[in-house]
Amino acid sequence: MSTVCVHGLGYIGLPTATIMANYDHEVYGYDAAPEVRSRLRDGDIHLDEPGLRAFVTQALESDQLEITDDVVPAKYHVICVPTPFEPETKTADLSYVEAAGRAIVDQLRHGDTVILESTVPPGTTEEALRPILEESGLSAGDDFALVHCPETVLPGNIIAELRENNRIIGGVNGVSTESAVRLYATFVEGEIRTVPNPTMAEFVKLIQNTFRDANIALANEIAKLAADYGLDSREGIELANSHPRVDILQPGPGVGGHCLPIDPWFLGQRSSELDLIAKAREVNDGMSGYVIELLREELGELAGQRIAVLGVAYKGNVGDVRMSPGLKLAHELQHGDRPREMTAADGGTSTPPEIRLHDPNVDDPTLELTDLETATTDANAAVVTTDHDAFEAFDPGAFRERMADPIVVDTKAILEPSEWRREGFTVRRI
Ligand code: SAJ
Q1: Do both 174 and 55 map to the same domain?
Q2: Does the beta carbon of 278 sit less than 6 angstroms from any atom of ligand 1?
Q3: Which of 47, 234, 298, 336 places its Cα 20 to 30 Å from the Cα of 149?
Q4: pTM across the whole model
Q5: In a mutational test of the pocket of ligand 1, which residue from 215, 220, 249, 259 has the highest number of ligand atoms less than 8 Å from its CB?
């Protein structure tokens, strides 16, 4: 068993540190933010992920995982810091990766292994991280091992997927790769695939998320086509998927989270070849505009109308609002980011619609969330933007009593249209 220093204690770093601790490694967790460290020491697990609290608490209590105020020397340094997206330039902000590299330099010893797990544009490990680490005077591949091993866990199922998912490991040389394989083999039950260099590992991770994003864009375009033919897109997709080589994902109000809407841009960061992939991004980003069009078809001018947006988490059964399609829709309804959708006859001086946000899974004091009753009372339309299990219990009769107009746009197809129509609702689905 080895000493491991995990850098960055967020959605990936904290569960990763914990699982390694559970498999008897001596793990030190470091986060550059002092408040994250002190909260964790107080047992305050600041992330909303099923099972995470108990999982981490147990590791901290067993002393196998220790939160440290400094980076400590360790056989393995595992970097799990964020790589924020710069929307203006559509590029990755690598400052956290670089800072983690600089923090490791003074502690790096002959024979250590540095593993980057953060999602990064192809070439980052070799071109951005390596030179920083080599400021130690040690040489990557010869004196220390340097590897990219992308995380692939699905928010909402992180703990199981850390153990079960396949992993891809690419080191700067064979010795580097083998060293990382030894660490991951202690807790990964999936297959460990090794690739010739870190850039291939970075590339593979990005094309996985790009595949999913482009597949959803196809589903979204199919949904719009189906509507033009008076067909149910979900039924069409389900039937198409009965073919053994067809696997189309589901349409919706757009693609959120910190991965799918971003990784296609990271993939193209150092190439001029993004074409279909960029178009797919545009299709998915345009879905909020499509929802607004559906609302306008039912309500006419949106100015002054009350609209309940039900679901601001980026997807079902999570509480994470990063790049949330529900929030994007609310923002565009209120601020008219897409002028095409919001053209007011009076030159834009009319009152924007009143938006009420509801999401039982989200606990975010910066958002004005209301309970379901407040959100829907006197509403002219309700839009379901997240497929939380809790939303399946929505009672159309209760909605009918509260709402001013019986109009519902179900972007996730979780409501049973016949039940809502029986209550007099106009139901629009994507
Ligand atoms: N969505 C659809 N239609 C679908 C499936 C998803 O519109 O059929 C939407 C969701 O509602 C959500 C967005 O896509 O807004 C992303 O959700 P997701 O569940 O597809 O993916 P993430 O972002 O939660 O996690 C992805 C996963 N990548 C892949 O499945 C290839 C996960 O395994 C990665 O580890 C994660 O990105 C990451 O960290 O990169």
Answers
A1: yes
A2: no
A3: 47
A4: 0.94
A5: 259
